[in-house]
Amino acid sequence: MRAKFGAKLLAVVLAAGLSAACTSSDTGDEDQLAQPGGKVELSFWSWAPNIDKTVDAWNAANPDIHVTLSKQAGGGDIVTKLLTSAKAGNPPDLAQVEYQALPTLVSNDVLADIAKEAEPAKAKFAEGVWQQVTLGTESVYAIPQDSGPMMLYYRTDLFEKLGLTVPKTWDEFAQTARAVRQKDPKKYLTTFSANDPGWFTGLAQQAGAAWWGINGEAWKVSVNDAATKKVADYWGALVNEGVIDGKPMYTPAWNKALNDGTLIAWPSAIWAPGVLEGNAPATKGKWAMAPMPQWAAGENKTGSWGGSSTGVTAAGKNKAAAVKFATWMNTDPAATDLLIKESAIYPAARDAQASPLLQAPPAFFAQQKDFYTEAKAIADTAVGFVWGPNVNVAYDTYKDAFGKAITGKTPFSGAVDTMQSATVADMQKNGFTVTS
Amino acid sequence: MSSAVTGRSRRGAASRRVPYLFLAPAIVLFTLFVILPIGYAIYLSLRKVKVSGLGLGRNSRKEIFAGLENYRDALADPELWSSAGRVLAYGAILLPIMLGLALLFALLLDRPRVGLARFSRLAIFLPYAVPGLIASMLWGFLYLPAVSPFTNVAEWLGLPAPDPLTGNSVIFAIVNIAVWGGVGFNMIVLFTSLRAIPGEIYESALLDGCTQFQLAVRIKIPLLLPSLIMTTVFSLIATLQVFTEPLTVRSLTNSISSTWTPLMKIYSDAFAQNDIYAAAATSVVIAGVTLVISFGFLCLVQRQAFGGEHR
Amino acid sequence: MTTLTSSVPARSDLDPETPRRGERARTAWLPTAVLLVGAFYCLLPVAWVVAASTKSGSSLFTTFTFAPGGDLLDNLSDLSTYGGGIYWRWLANSLLYAGVGGALSALVSGLSGYTLAKFRFAGRDTIFNVLLAGVLVPGVTLAIPQYLLLAKVGLTDTYWSVLLPSIISPFGIYLARIYAAAAVPDTVLEAARTDGAGELRIFGRVALPMMLPGLVTVFLFQFVAIWNNFLLPFVMISSDGRFPVTVGLFTLLNQGQTVPALYSVVIIGVLVSILPLIALFLLLQRFWRLDLVSGAVKG
């Protein structure tokens, strides 16, 4: 009796397994063209605020290609979910992807090579920007959407009150940090966040860091290069000295510190006005933007924090239509103006940066009339950077290693060494050829 | 007492199939959503990814057989052992506090002449209705010195502002969230058991001049022992699976690493580092350990709940 | 064997305020005070969320924590209009997942518990032990394999992908078995069988009504477990229109770096999301048979 039942159960399970095998085999990459009169359905993952307005505008104008938006939690979560869903064979057709995640996704076969379809879009972007989506190869993996050149934001009223000048070099920045503590022990110039690896990477880029590089058929990995260690130890000394705060960003406490003037400056990126407006509404009109402090006087460089692109997945069945939408969204003035206005995005396309909407400063910075002229000048000084295939591992290690260094008051260069060994170990484990 | 359908039943074979048919939905669902995934996890744990070249071309990533490599790596990882140690310490602090408070509250509720008992009972039970994710978020707001009301209280008393998220006190911060979420539920379980004890048992003791305190210690607690054991066992299981609270609080502090508990390590391997094979191996190791614990658990449950049932 | 209703005398009415025979109604101050401290501790974060939900985004972190503001209605309308009212959809989804999942789980657990308690058959203990061991398997370890397997049958990102794995509840089967053993007298089953009723009919017409309070308890447990579950829907569901409220609030709290977290919307959302559970508990309170957990309902 039991045996008979067991056999039945086994049959049920096997049937389930079989049907599983059958359905999973039909995810080939044949490109279904839209049948005449038929409607193409595209799914799109994004986390940009109000991007539904842009998608709605597309759907209204293109009845034959319908895009369904699914809002996701953020850049990191999207990568995780894309990897899992691609493994399972059911990713969306398009997704918003941060530049640093592109190699990870390409290496996992998530993104399609759209070099052919995206050819017309190439001319709309500056060469440095376009390079981010080609990874230095002949292929194209995404259409650039926005960029995040870093700049220094500071409270004009508090700088004046404390008798501070805007630091032009990192040496001056350190002096300013000490001066703040001297004049008002309740305030800090800024905080060093162990929760935001993208922020630290931008700082390291400015100093000339090159974490990944391609050397023939091998990856060169040097997360702990001299430039990065210089940046890490610079901040480590200030945090351990107690003149820079060591609490993470993007917490309620951080919001409050921005609001009540406990933190009076923030090295951030071009999208910062939107964040400040949302998190520190009480400080409207009190902020100004300046170029980042430099490592050598007279230099003119900056790094990038954030910035994203629109990728088309390899498993999607309507590649051509998907690229058409991605190109429209990131280059057509109608779309980019909506992105600027509704989603507070600084567009990557050259024409879009000249939009009339970007002639006036953001409302939160109304007194800084030349905000976007200045911002464009700074954006042009952003240095390039090659991302590796396991940025996720390096970033994940960053949080643990720097968190430990801050609580244990150990040199930050040790944390950078930890990042390097974890990144290399992960690549070797996966079979990459790595040189250093 | 026994009426079980047995072989002697006149309806014979047909009725002998009945219990299996009745159990079929549970068994099929259990197989599909527990056993099959575990089997799949074991399969994944024996595999790994092999990249060729730069790993940028199509199909440059292949899944290959890895043998026991993932297990070797998992067991050799000091992070796994320290996270296991941390969970043991966490449980050693949490269980006595949570169950002690639950027992205290239950006994007090069972006392006569307690004012506002219904209000207190509902208030203490309320956190059960709050998801762990949200509870951690709420406590996070109360922990951060910059936004915490405790800071105002401390300033008023002339004390330094408490900062439970730094250094070693972070484990207590997590324990507190778990106590808050769990004490009410356990209190109600114990309280319900207390109410099921017939009142006559107490009467002679009270006539002998027993105080309420003596009554609680000498009579009620011994009678509650079976319930206490069961609540301990279920709390222990929940303790070993601690995950949501530290994961949520992590974004507020530098003191919680991504591998703070074993389940967080699995989560980090699978979701942040995209290595589902390593995550699967660690999962299987943890499942193995819990299996060993489960033998003790099952023996206990059998004796506890079904000792009196017909066999 | 005593049936359940008679084995629990009047005392078990969850209301100890009714004074026992011969006791004077003078309040015992120390126990009252201790309980009120406990209540205060448990209400503190809830009070915080109530106070915070009345504040605008700009006064949220700048005014004293428990000082109420006057923006409750503004916050509510922000919540309602966010993403075209998607919050209410999340709430409805949560009700669907937890309600349907809890009901199916109670039914399957009831049938299984009844069978395990009232039938004698080969492999009974083995089946029960294996099912019960399921309680020890953490959801985190199952989520990814479950996702990959469901993806193979094309069920991810559907309501089924959250509902189906939620039906099986080892804890529910355990509770149902205890309750069935205590609440369904063998003599009644014998009598029904003598009358020639089929086994399914006996379960549906005789055993099920007797087990109802126990099944309500199983339902409530599973309802709360599904409602509070975050990881399973987080992994399974990618369309925001099918998110339950926990995942929805999580996405609001963790917008990307370039977007400020919508704290005031999240906080009012948290408050509103707690209310249905509180209502459910108050409503079903008297069916709550928590003595089941400790196996104390033996006759």
**What is the first-to-last residue Cα distance of chain A?**
65 Å
- Strand proportion of chain B, as a percent range, falls in under 5%
Order of the strands making up the biggest sheet of chain B? 1-2
Count of runs of 4 or more consecutive helical residues of chain A: 18
Strand percentage of chain A = 5-15%
Distance between the termini of chain B: 10 Å
Q: State the helicity of chain A in percent bands.
A: 40-55%
What is the tally of helical segments of chain B? 12
Produce a short descriptive summary.
Chain B is mainly alpha-helical and 311 residues long.
Describe the structure.
The complex is a heterotrimer of chains A (436), B (311) and C (299). With 436 residues, chain A is an alpha/beta fold. Chain A is built from 18 helices and ten strands. In chain A, the strands form two sheets. In chain A, strands 1, 2, 3, 4, 7, 8 and 9 form a seven-stranded mixed beta sheet that branches. Chain A has a three-stranded mixed beta sheet with strand order 5-6-10, with helices on one face. Chain A is globular, with a radius of gyration of 24 Å. The model of chain A is unreliable at 1-36 (pLDDT under 50). Chain B is mainly alpha-helical and 311 residues long. Chain B is 69% helix and 3% strand. Chain B contains twelve helices and two strands. In chain B, strands 1-2 form a two-stranded antiparallel sheet. In chain B, helix 1 runs antiparallel to helix 12 (276-306) and helix 7 crosses helix 9 (212-240). Chain B starts with 12 loop residues before the first helix and ends in a 5-residue tail after the last helix. Chain C is mainly alpha-helical. Chain C is globular, with a radius of gyration of 23 Å. The relative contact order of chain C is 0.15.
